[in-house]
Write a structure and sequence with these properties.
333 residues, alpha/beta, Rossmann fold, L-2-Hydroxyisocaproate Dehydrogenase, Chain A, domain 2, 2 domains, ten-stranded mixed β-sheet, 10 helices, 42% helix
Length: 333
């Protein structure tokens, strides 16, 4: 374990008022490409008093030194190796687990195995804590990883379903930007709800509920939904085999901001895959209202189109299979 003390103030305190910081955030997998980008942005968040970075690679020392050159008051800590993971978790109000993504050197199967082992280890370490922090999980297969985490925590009688989130913000912002691009609108002024799970066959963009509303024909709807579902692949192809790290890191930041606001006493809405049995799946994704106790409820929608109902039906089938796989994975280990 190693610590970087707070940097000396280089700017005149009479000229700048430092915002109050009050939350500790642990980034598990913080030395990865997504993790480093996320940590850079979290470093500048005014409500982060301590940024804790955990990973296995030795480069974490350099990552911390790099981050220390960003002039903020946030305290930095770094941990390397599984034996220090419990310390990285114990100090955190919010834990963000950044999963691996396939690239030129790592296949999808390898990433799945790596993410499964990471989340297993994380869940077992979380189960040893007296109080469960807010936990946000990323990485594929998310529909499997989140139920798996819940099952491990249940086995140790420390599970709080209101504090476990699979982060699906990337699906929402992709739908938002692609819908805006299709209609040549400002993406900041567009909202596209996304429900279901976090896989190509369970992501359900609700174009019928989009704002501003656009009366699109059937072919355009089918093409746009297919594009939203495969947008990650398109980025990987355009980057010559490298994964979409920047947009994913940004989406995790949006989620983290929502949770930090809730921890500070506010009420937020975050896109997440959480425990929800409204559709008989055990878990489901959507826009979740959160306060300082955790998830409160999920936004519901009515008057879905016939095609969206079809996608929902198919998506529910796939989510059920994934959730069951997540709950059984411990028996197969």
């Amino acid at each position: 374990m190693f610590v970087l003390k707070r940097l000396p103030k280089l700017l005149c305190t009479k000229c700048i008022t430092t915002p109050v910081r009050n939350c500790a955030v642990s980034v598990i997998g913080g030395a990865s490409d997504i993790g480093q980008t996320l940590c850079m942005m979290l470093r500048a968040q005014p409500t982060v008093s301590k940024l804790i970075i955990y990973d296995k690679p030795d480069i974490i020392n350099g990552v911390l030194m790099d981050l220390s050159h960003i002039p903020t008051d946030a305290h930095l800590k770094g941990y390397i190796g599984e034996e220090t993971l419990d310390r990285a978790l114990k100090e955190a109000d919010l834990v963000l687990a950044v999963g691996a993504v396939p690239d030129k050197t790592t296949s999808k199967t390898q990433c799945t195995l790596k993410n499964t082992e990471l989340i297993k280890t994380l869940a077992y370490k979380l189960s040893k804590l007296k109080t469960m922090p807010f936990v946000g999980i990323t990485g594929d297969p998310l529909n499997v990883l989140v139920p798996m985490t819940s099952e491990i925590l249940k086995n140790h009688q420390v599970y709080d379903p209101k504090k476990l989130f699979g982060i699906t913000t990337i699906d929402s912002i992709r739908a938002q930007t692609l819908y805006a691009l299709h209609n040549q609108w400002n993406p900041r002024e567009c909202v596209v709800p996304v429900i279901g799970g976090h896989s190509k066959d369970s992501i359900i963009p609700l174009l019928s509920q989009a704002k501003p509303y656009c009366d699109m024909n059937g072919k355009s709807i089918h093409e746009l939904i297919a594009k939203i579902r495969r947008s990650g692949d398109y980025v990987t192809e355009a980057k010559k085999g490298r994964p979409p790290t920047l947009s994913i890191a940004y989406s995790i930041l949006i989620f983290a901001r929502g949770i930090l606001h809730a921890l500070s006493g506010g009420v937020s809405k975050v896109n997440a895959f959480v425990e929800n049995n409204d559709f008989g799946t055990g878990f489901f994704g959507g826009l979740v209202t959160v306060d300082d106790t955790g998830a409160i409820d999920m936004q519901r929608y009515s008057h879905l189109s016939q095609y969206e109902c079809y996608l929902l039906e198919r998506g529910i089938e796939n989510i059920r299979k994934d959730v069951l796989k997540g709950k059984r994975i411990l028996d197969l280990a």
